[in-house]
Write a structure and sequence with these properties.
Radius of gyration: 36 Å
CATH topology of the largest domain: Triger factor/SurA peptide-binding fold
Structural class: alpha+beta
Distance between the termini: 47 Å
Number of helices: 23
Strand content: 15-25%
Number of strands: 17
CATH superfamily of the largest domain: Porin chaperone SurA, peptide-binding domain
Strand order of the largest sheet: 14-3-16-15
Shape: extended
Largest sheet: 4 strands, antiparallel
Helix content: 40-55%
């Protein structure tokens, strides 16, 4: 049993760690809405309860994970609309059912086994691959948990896995299904394609005025003049304040002396290190290096011994160029006292025996005060300027709050003022030209177009520690163009639509003739170029730049010798494709076959697990407090 668990431990612990870390929101300020004395049961499974706080913690964790994966698109309203509360409660009920079944089956996990499993987890290993008590304690501090609580959560999760393991997937799909699915998924097709572009059917006919007016009335949204805004930009940056700031020589010297690491480069050492299980193995390892025929290259001998004796690769033992603080103190003391190109060890450690080699030393570089004086002075000035900027920001807000216009508030703090007239959301003026003076601050136009007229925005910090604010002075709202303004564009649009109709008509005529004739001869008749793609795969490989996704799907759904209907390739082109040949699979890729086996097996195992849980659910008495569940989301934003 222990061996089986040990194989799974790395993935298991990673998952558990993420779940517990997310659940620890409760410790970081989310909090429980019910006290320990008043934590009602949201559901009961036999004699076990799913408490309200347990549900809330899990729900917030799941919602947080969904938002991380969707860049914040899953709001609480969306979560409720897709049934996340009920799904979360169902998950917790299933866990309670499995816990009951674990107790019935009398499955246990002794403490000594659990400790071994934890010590084997990569989550708690140091950079040398050994269990680190400090790392373990750090993880628990991050979770806000005591070790007893943590052990209990890990134990419950592992024991639940023992019940689920009965239905876990195995690569046991029959070769018939496996091979058929592989052949369908990986078949190649030989495709011939022609493009029929609207540009080949130029239409210069001028539509009637009534047709132009009808187009404008029907498709007003296509002929809108964008919203334009005039605004005042006030900005203040640290450089504006530097001239008026003086720094004492004593302060510059103090900065240099107090923070030497900012101005000096610490010694670095390239270290090759190996940890071994016991002193006998370590001594044999050192002996083989020293007895090597190639006595001139200690690094080469060290790496060769590692590869031959431990089966590790050279990258795993090379710590790279490290500084003293990159390693635990007890290791750094030894490493940074060692001589260059001298084998060190074996040395006994709490995690075994280590042997290492210093392959390269980059000496510490001490920078003279005179060389960095100007740099330090400027840094100190910038720090003072930043502090002043926040004070000036408060003065600016006070001026605005007292009823002064943005120009007056800006003058009170000597900020820069620039006026911009009639700019659209893309930074273009009324004539369609780029507004060149607009600063390259991120989201500046978003700020302009989200601020109400005659209002001043918040003071915003942006690139280079610059602060700016916007006041919107005037708005020309979005409006439909007049027929005179839109006429030229409408004429071009109508002409293009007719060109596309002609292209589509040509494509349909081509298909009718090619269905009963030679594809290439008919293409030549229509003055079309045939593109020949010999080995097109379902994932699109072999048809790049020839077929889009819609065309790709179609050519893999028709039989050999058949032709697709016209497919819109882009805004001005139709394509027609013919399947010339379906190519049999010659060489079976064993790795892909394994992937397919695994994928199908997982799907089957998932279905079986759902059937299993449904059956177990019928054997337990489950009660849900629907009123309490609904009340948790009333007026909850």
């Amino acid at each position: 049993m222990l061996n089986t668990l040990r194989k799974k431990i790395n993935s298991t612990f990673s998952i558990i760690f993420v779940l517990l870390l997310a659940a620890s929101f409760a410790f970081w300020g989310v909090g429980d809405i019910f006290s320990s004395k008043n934590n009602p049961a949201l559901a009961t499974v036999d004699n076990q309860e799913v408490t309200a706080n347990e549900f809330i913690t899990t729900y917030k964790r799941i919602l947080s994970e969904l938002n991380k994966n969707t860049q914040g698109q899953i709001t609480e309203e969306v979560a409720r609309s897709i049934g996340l509360p009920r799904q979360t409660l169902a998950q917790l009920i299933n866990e309670k059912i499995i816990d009951i079944e674990v107790n019935k089956a009398n499955i246990i996990l002794p403490d000594e086994y659990l400790k071994k499993l934890i010590q084997s987890s990569n989550l708690f290993k140091d950079q040398f691959g050994s269990f680190s008590k400090q790392q373990f304690e750090y993880v628990l501090r991050q979770l806000g948990m005591e070790d007893k609580t943590y052990f209990n959560e890990i134990r419950k999760s592992i024991l639940r896995d023992q019940i689920r393991a009965t239905f876990s997937y195995k690569n046991d799909i029959t070769p018939i299904i496996e091979n058929i699915y592989y052949n369908i998924r990986n078949e190649n097709r030989s495709i011939k394609t022609v493009n029929i572009s609207a540009s080949a059917f130029k239409n210069d006919a001028i539509p009637k005025n009534s047709e132009i007016q009808n187009k404008l009335n029907t498709d007003k949204e296509l002929y809108m003049k964008p919203e334009f805004r005039s605004f005042t930009l006030v900005s203040l940056k640290p450089d504006d304040l530097l001239m008026d700031i003086n720094i004492n020589e004593e302060d510059i010297i103090a900065e240099y002396n107090n923070y030497p690491e900012k101005y000096n480069i610490s010694e670095k050492r390239e270290v090759f290190l190996i940890n071994l299980q016991d002193d006998q193995i370590a001594n044999n390892f050192v002996r083989k290096i020293n007895n090597s025929n190639n006595s001139s290259d200690l690094k080469e001998n060290f790496i060769k011994a590692v590869v031959n004796e431990t089966k590790q690769d050279s990258d795993s033992i090379n710590l790279g160029l490290i500084e003293y603080n990159d390693l635990p103190p007890e290791v750094s003391d030894s490493v940074f006292k060692a001589e260059l190109n001298k084998l060190v060890g074996p040395e006994k450690t709490p995690f075994g025996w280590r042997v290492f080699l210093i392959n390269k030393i980059e000496a510490e570089i001490i920078t003279k005060y005179e060389d960095v004086k100007i740099q330090i002075e400027k840094e100190l000035k910038v720090n003072v300027a930043l502090e002043k900027m926040y004070d000036l920001g408060n003065i600016f807000y006070d001026e605005i709050a007292s009823g002064n216009q943005i120009q007056e508030a800006a003058l009170s703090i000597n900020a820069s003022i620039i006026e911009f007239n009639h700019t659209d959301v893309n930074g273009m003026d009324l004539n369609g030209n780029i507004v060149n003076d607009l600063p390259p601050y991120p989201n500046i136009l978003k700020t302009v177009f989200s601020t109400n007229v005659n209002n001043t925005s918040e003071l915003i910090s942006t690139i280079g520690n610059t602060m700016y604010a916007i006041q919107v002075n005037d708005i020309i709202y979005e409006q439909t163009m007049t027929i005179d303004e839109a006429k030229d564009k409408i004429i071009k649009d109508i002409q293009f639509i007719k060109s596309m109709e002609m292209a589509l008509n040509t494509a349909n005529n081509f298909i009718r003739e090619a269905d009963s004739g030679d594809f290439e001869k008919i293409a030549k008749k229509y003055n079309l170029i045939v593109l020949d793609s010999k080995n097109v795969q379902k994932n699109g490989r072999g048809s790049e730049g020839v077929l889009n996704q819609e065309a790709l799907n179609l050519v893999f759904h028709i039989k050999k010798g058949k032709i697709t209907q016209p497919i819109k390739y882009n805004d001005n082109t139709y394509i027609v494709a013919k399947v010339e040949n379906i190519l049999p699979i010659k060489d079976v890729n064993s790795e892909k076959l394994i992937e397919i086996n695994s994928s199908i097996s997982k799907d089957i195992a998932k279905d079986i697990q759902e059937l299993f849980m449904n059956n177990l659910t019928n054997n337990h008495k489950i009660k849900i407090n629907d009123r309490l569940l609904d009340s948790l989301f009333l007026n909850n934003s």
